[in-house]
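FORM 12-B: Structure-to-Sequence Request
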């Protein structure tokens, strides 16, 4: 039997894997994502990774959002993968289903054409400067996870923007709410600009008398 593709699952069920290093707020981001989905009337299950990963290795938190009852609570074929560290990208990007979306922090991750000999062909790769934006625009690198959530909402539409903002207001301490609302907008606007940007032409190279693709520009 063929593996399911993103199109097979997109209608009613979204399996989402958020990944990064300990201290990047992956679990908080997943909690806010799940909270926003619940408030929108969706069926939701979230699982989180603890243990040695929390001390700096590749860690993950997973959310399943569905229009129907969720009969199996674990992410087995993520349609959306977010990677905020190189180790997380190497471990989890290749596990995204064909046709799926991989979003990564372009300042922290190099998206190689092959990771552990596993091709990333057939995946949509989107790199955005989450940490850079959080540092330069907000003065708080720790807000990169919220910048990422704003971008994820814009790129996927899996939850409503207002539901995500409401989740931030409910879940976070009042003194940092407005900062994080700004972080959401930063991510949203950055992703929107990326979507409007025309695709760059692919450079070509000639080697040993043959013409070939050099990879994405």
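FORM 12-B RESPONSE
SEQUENCE OUT:
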């Amino acid at each position: 039997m063929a593996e399911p593709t993103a199109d097979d699952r997109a209608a009613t069920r979204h399996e989402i894997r958020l990944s990064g290093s300990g201290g990047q707020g992956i679990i908080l981001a997943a909690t806010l994502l799940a909270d926003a989905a619940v408030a929108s009337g969706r069926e939701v299950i979230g699982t989180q990774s603890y243990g040695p990963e929390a001390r700096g290795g590749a860690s993950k938190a997973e959310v399943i959002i569905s229009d129907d009852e969720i009969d199996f609570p674990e992410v087995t074929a993520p349609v959306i993968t977010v990677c905020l560290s190189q180790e997380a990208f190497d471990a989890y990007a290749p596990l995204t289903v064909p046709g799926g979306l991989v979003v990564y922090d372009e300042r922290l991750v190099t998206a190689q054409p092959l990771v552990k000999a596993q091709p990333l062909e057939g995946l949509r790769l989107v790199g955005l400067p989450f940490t850079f934006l959080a540092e330069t625009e907000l003065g708080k690198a720790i807000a990169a996870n919220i910048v990422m959530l704003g971008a994820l909402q814009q790129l996927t539409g899996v939850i409503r923007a207002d539901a995500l903002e409401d989740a931030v207001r409910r879940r976070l301490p009042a003194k940092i709410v407005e900062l994080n609302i700004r972080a959401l907008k930063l991510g949203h606007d950055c992703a929107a600009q990326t979507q409007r940007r025309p695709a760059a032409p692919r450079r070509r190279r000639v080697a040993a008398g043959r013409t070939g693709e050099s990879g994405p520009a």
